What we know:
The chain has 13 helices and ten strands. The chain has helices spanning 4-16, 78-85, 130-147, 152-161, 170-177, 185-188, 191-211, 229-232, 244-265, 278-287, 289-292, 336-348, 360-365; strands at residues 33-37, 106-108, 163-167, 216-220, 272-276, 296-300, 303-304, 311-312, 326-328, 355-356. Strands 2-1-3-4-5-10 form a six-stranded mixed β-sheet. A two-stranded parallel ribbon has the order 6-9. A two-stranded antiparallel sheet has the order 7-8. Strand 1, helix 2 (78-85) and strand 2 form a beta-alpha-beta unit. The radius of gyration is 20 Å and the shape is globular.
Amino acid sequence: MWNPMLVCCVFMWLTANKAYSQPSNQAPQVPALFIFGDSLVDNGNNNGILSLARANYMPYGIDFPQGTTGRFTNGRTFVDVLAQLLGFPNYIPPYARARGQALLRGANYASGASGIRDETGNNLGDHMSMNQQVDSFATTVQQLRRYFRGDENALAAYLSKSIFYCGLGSNDYLNNYFMRDYYSTSTQYTPKAYADSLIQDYSRQLTALSNLGARKVIVTAVGQIGCIPYQLARYNGKGSKCNEEINNAIILFNSNLRYLVDRFNKGQFGAKFVYLDSYQSSQDLARNAKTYGFEVVDTGCCGVGKNNGQITCLPLQTPCDNRRKYLFWDAFHPTEAANILLAKKAYTDKSKLFAYPINIQQLAML
Length: 366
């Protein structure tokens, strides 16, 4: 059961906290948002570690109100927009800087280059894998206990109403399976066996989150990364500009992930899992680019070489002028304009094409 006085105090603190830079007259639809993932949603956790997967330099953040923060795009990420749609007065803080009562509104554990597998992304240096992110959340739960004065029922109710976003898998392909000079996984596994192995690991990680109290969980498919500027700059295939070998491998993973969502929704926790079809939604943006206001869908706004994808955006490099016309910010990541559209689709979609079996707005209302 909720402890009404405790919850009231929590939300009064959240509302009154002057550190919030995005004023809102709307109370958040859920108590907290906890985020797990990679550079698509990392908002600064990699800034202080030895890693090439960092974005704490200009022109990253050129359109973000707080400037350069470590976000791998020009402005807001998908989860920044999602937090606003859910009514949070401010963006969810990175775990590396979240302290004290700030944890009551959630934390972002995402780390650039991270994956489901621990070794994924090692070619880029240090990072926090999904296993490490789950361990960090376990530490957060211990910290939260003191704010609930040891009331386990109140803590469980708070966590059960919070939303958990999990977006992993891209680097397990980009910075593992298809990086054959550095990793041996492509010789150890067929694409199907690798997808099966990833899902087994991911299932254990998601189960661990459920054991820690997660009941409203979003999991995202891997996007169409065979068509990002990084791949377009390197691939010279026939019949398609995209690297369909990568796309076909990802489809196997995504199919398994959707099946896993169905299985979890029939499980013992009473949890509700939502599957976001990032492959379908990113493909939709590219195919219907003009409808969405995009003029450039195969080239990064900032980068070097063919498709601005051979080398990603460099420090102090001058990016394109009209970021709203570009689908991709750099060799790997979408622009803020794309993130806004993707988040709104996931939040309101009722077709079940992009959010299954319900959308995020419906998940928040449960």
